Amino acid sequence: MINEQLLNPSGIVVVGGSDDIQKPGGKVLRNLLDGDFKGRLYVVNPKVDEVQGVKSYRKVDDLPQVDCAILAIAAKYCPDAVEVLAKQKGTKAFIILSAGFSEENAEGAALESRIVDTVNSVGGALIGPNCIGVLTTHYNGVFTTPIPALDPRGVDLISGSGATALFIMDAGMQKGVKFSSVFSVGNSAQLGVEEVLEYLDESFDPEKSSRVKLLYVESIAKPEKLLKHASSLIRKGCRIAAIKSGGSAAGSRAASSHTGALASSDVAVEALFRKAGIVRCNGRDELATVAGIFMYPPLQGKNMAIVTHAGGPAVMLTDALSNGGMEIPHLEGEKALQLLEQLFNGSSVGNPIDFLATGTAEQLGIILDACERDFDAVDGIAVIFGSPGLFPVFDVYDMLDRKMKTARKPIFPIFPSYTIVKEEIKAFADKGRVYFPDEVLFGNALAKVWHTAAPQPENPVLPAVNVQKIRAIIDQAGNGYLAPEQIHGLLDAAGIERAKEGVADQEEDCVRLATEIGYPLVMKVVGPVHKSEVNGVVLHVKDEQTVRREFRRMMQIKDTYAVMLAQQLSGTEVFIGAKREQKFGHMVLCGLGGIFIEVLKDVKAGLAPLSCTEAREMIRQLKSYKIIQGVRGQEGVNEAKFAEAVARISVLVKIAPEIFEMDLNPLLGNKAGVVAVDARIRIEKEN
Amino acid sequence: MINEQLLNPSGIVVVGGSDDIQKPGGKVLRNLLDGDFKGRLYVVNPKVDEVQGVKSYRKVDDLPQVDCAILAIAAKYCPDAVEVLAKQKGTKAFIILSAGFSEENAEGAALESRIVDTVNSVGGALIGPNCIGVLTTHYNGVFTTPIPALDPRGVDLISGSGATALFIMDAGMQKGVKFSSVFSVGNSAQLGVEEVLEYLDESFDPEKSSRVKLLYVESIAKPEKLLKHASSLIRKGCRIAAIKSGGSAAGSRAASSHTGALASSDVAVEALFRKAGIVRCNGRDELATVAGIFMYPPLQGKNMAIVTHAGGPAVMLTDALSNGGMEIPHLEGEKALQLLEQLFNGSSVGNPIDFLATGTAEQLGIILDACERDFDAVDGIAVIFGSPGLFPVFDVYDMLDRKMKTARKPIFPIFPSYTIVKEEIKAFADKGRVYFPDEVLFGNALAKVWHTAAPQPENPVLPAVNVQKIRAIIDQAGNGYLAPEQIHGLLDAAGIERAKEGVADQEEDCVRLATEIGYPLVMKVVGPVHKSEVNGVVLHVKDEQTVRREFRRMMQIKDTYAVMLAQQLSGTEVFIGAKREQKFGHMVLCGLGGIFIEVLKDVKAGLAPLSCTEAREMIRQLKSYKIIQGVRGQEGVNEAKFAEAVARISVLVKIAPEIFEMDLNPLLGNKAGVVAVDARIRIEKEN
């Protein structure tokens, strides 16, 4: 568990600290010295008494008591050093930079396991091994550079890959992103991404804590923990973006050669992130852009004003936002005309608001005030301002900073020039501001953030099902596919409507069955193989008289020994499926049937359990949603009932986790509801 | 027309040149002086005799003969100055930076028009007005900074927006992209993007000319010219990428307020670019990334090796390439093992080839040699190499440059560190190399480049149609929807198979008609409104005997005065449409019918005329293509015949441009072919 000794140690020892700053042990010491660390600093180096001006002890045994140890020595020496530190020196925080542990071979794994046992035995915290270290606002505990600007209100970054953490910092720095902490968890021997997130959640202080978290992960070891703490943090007002790489087949192979762990199913990850409210990013630049967006107030609506001194970038941004499902409302009326009058001739205010290459800082101020005050249709403002290099633009960037301080609506600065305005950008970033170099990358990221829904409620309202009956059937079932009666029992217990059917070999039974099922119904001979060819199928049977007549006729047909009756159903084919996903629990899938699954792969997945609301959101995201609503004069499907069925299946698999996979395919849906016509359930009890 | 005086003038005068470099006239002079211009330089400034050390004339009239004039004076003074220069000073090239012309009002448009007339009268070239100017390897004729590195083998950039050209240069410079020329065409009074491209095409010299062209356009004034010269350049070995913005509805409004021109239909643009082989980009960063890719040899296949010293970025790049439809082939066997032996313990070569954070320049060389020589499955190599800041990486980047010089396979350098390796990156760029900061943005761009097909052939093979018959029908037709007989005539003349049908009121006629149509067929009463209710429809009629019997029976039915016979067709509903698009000619559209058009918008569009090959490519890009191939035991559609029908419609509308829009919806397709069941054609003759 993360502790105060790790975050804010009173003393740090670099075991393996050296004068050679081209080595991790030398470089991490250099970074500590260059940084703001105010505690005591020690080195252990068997050869010298002083390293980079810091007192060096020849052996770990010689050290005084010390909170935190950073180890940069060969793997084989680590367990003993940790033992002495933990048991004799009161050390409660360990950062092991060295490689050569479980990522390499079984021998290394044994070393790692011994270290974890030792650290656990004293209730300590362990970061790594095989990582670049830890950065907090108190100390620079990484062996890499650059060190980003550290700020308690900056970003908390947790990364499963050290080099990637470094490159993410670099990408962020180029947009002015500051960092509050960086945890490179390496092999996650004791503390992984999930545990760090748990700590950030449990220690969250609305007054002091950073509100932006970034994650880089290749495999999610503890999905439930990630879901719990990510959604909890977001409910507390945080914003989280994450890269989960290795989602493609080839990427999964690449990730497994990188971390040794098979990548999690990408569909499951997608569902987990959506449930948690995490913005999923695909690359470092996108992650840094989203982090930048997170540093500004959240949008309260999807209407953007675009303020620009150059037409082209504004057109491209308009395209990006509009294609991303946001609005760029046309601004007109008296207030717009008043604004136009205060700008140079040739300006336009219809949105984009183009105040021309000659536009001034003062005019920008007027425009921003108008957007804030006069245009209710505007929820946020993107300001594009570069420079042709004629004169400095400090005044413009200062104006942006000033207006940002008081505006309720977020103002996003896009600086399309770089080479010629480095100084201005630096001054702006030094005020703690983040900026965006490319309008389209910004626009795409903003649309993605906007479309990421809030986390699902902690305790969702779930449909009630007959738990006892479900458990009874499951407990009696063996592995493999369930028999029809078992399936019927489970569906009934879960409250899923299914097509009624039955078989009768006596006329009176047949009539009774027909009454139970209800009209209209279908009658089919039982016995003959080719039922149609022997005239053994009758559709749309509407009354008892026909039932009696057809029963008598059918029983005369060769090979017929009984008659099957089934509800005559009509509607649109939909489907619901569920699949147990390692570590993630069950994924529940839904969509339209037939070609929509098989050819168009138009399926949405959610992580069980799903409330009716969450199920409904999934349905609405289907590409074929219009068909469910009803299109071209066709009836459509009762959306509420479809969503309820999806939610019921998600509750069923929660209660019966022994269900390995199941399909209701098809269900027939119409305005009245959805009815399962065919179902398949496979049980696989875990040992 | 662009001329030598514009590209490489022996003398340039800056009319309106001043000492104030915060003004365009001062800044453009400064840039000329700072650049490599070797010719004579003059200034016209009514107030002084020398400006920035250059001789200044008080009046244009006082100037000696001069090839090229750059005007930075108020719009109203421009026409007279141009008059004197053109008529008296032998000036053949004009770059007008000033604004206040047709982009502002009618008065400005009149000034602009006068200038164009004057320039045309001497056969001169005019760039602008309302632009940032021109850059060539001979002179810096722009008033903006930064000035990118100029190199005859760099990129030719043509932009309809001046500021955007500036920002594109800036984005390119940050990746090491060099420029051969930059044309900011402003109002395109005489020379627009298309004319510059035409010149680059007609003057193309395989020995000397740059092979990479970038375009930024908001409205395409001359699509045919753009198509002609872009495809011609690409056939000559060039590579072209373009941003066409204003594609969304809101973006179109934004573009029109920017340039005054309505944006072209985005579907038409998409079709034009595909036909020409232009890589379409959506933003500056993407355009600069594609330009960077263009600076390396083209990929000959889609198999990429990823070489890295850090796992995470390699996993993300693998995902990006793989999701983009490229391959990252698994490398194994003896050669792979040999390679592995030469790397540090813990490296992997399965692809990604990860040679660890400790990997050396020498090892990189060995890996690149192996990829070039030993792994036939590899078509190109992406090398990811950043730095944790422990030591400089000059040797690694030098190795990259050296191997690039001899490798046949392209090697793309991805540098995920920036802050800490600025010097190394600069040294690499100074060797003329381009690099990529973000692996995912690179991967997405590479996949886009790979999937951009070659231009269509200059003289495509088109299906033969009956031109005379088509013209006869069209010439006789008035505006509006055509009558059934006219439609039948056009379809027959175009060689489109259609459902045969006819009406008979005599038994013998009916039998003859049935023989003509062929069996099976459908018979329907003509007269009664509700045909089914009076038993007036018979399907699947298979022989003459049934025709006779049913004819007699039907003629007895109340209100019946004739019987209609039609081919009994079955198959999958597909559709073909065509629409005249302003300036672009006709778009031809195809897809599956029904919900595929209406709900899923699964439609591909091509610019007429289309060869069967091009039509087939369109069909294969449909999301529902699998249904055309046949799926779930269903028959599918004869792809060759469907493509031929698309091509035939494209030829029809070329011959009959009076067709404003037409729909064949549906056609029924099966393995035998496609047959039009219903068609609508609307004529709108232009005045």
From TrEMBL, chains A, B:
Species, as recorded: Odoribacter laneus YIT 12061
Pfam families assigned to the protein according to its UniProt record, in alphabetical order: ATP-grasp_5, CoA_binding_2, Succ_CoA_lig
CoA-binding domain span: 6-101
InterPro entries xref list: ATP_grasp_subdomain_1, CoA-bd, NAD(P)-bd_dom_sf, Succ_CoA_lig_flav_dom, Succinyl-CoA_synth-like
SUPFAM superfamilies recorded: Glutathione synthetase ATP-binding domain-like, NAD(P)-binding Rossmann-fold domains, Succinyl-CoA synthetase domains
Record-linked PANTHER family: COA BINDING DOMAIN CONTAINING PROTEIN (PTHR42793), PEPTIDYL-LYSINE N-ACETYLTRANSFERASE PATZ (PTHR42793:SF1)
SMART domains named among the record's database cross-references: CoA_binding (SM00881)
Name used for this protein in its record: CoA-binding domain-containing protein
Gene Ontology MF terms: ATP binding
